[in-house]
Amino acid sequence: MLKNINYFIYSIILFELMSFAIGSGTHFEHYKYTIMISIAVLNFTITRSLPKLDLAHYYQIFKKE
Question: Among residues 42, 44, 48, 36, which one has the least CA distance to residue 8?
């Protein structure tokens, strides 16, 4: 789910950069970019810091009990 949010944020930023390069300007204020980038960085940090769940391992432990 967090990856989908990051992809959405990246797509908005890419769209805004393309519209800026074409010459139509940007549609967001700068604080909105800051919020989106901080959310993407936070999501990236959370997904990297969480341990990977090995569900098969946990199933074997509960099955033994």
Answer: 36
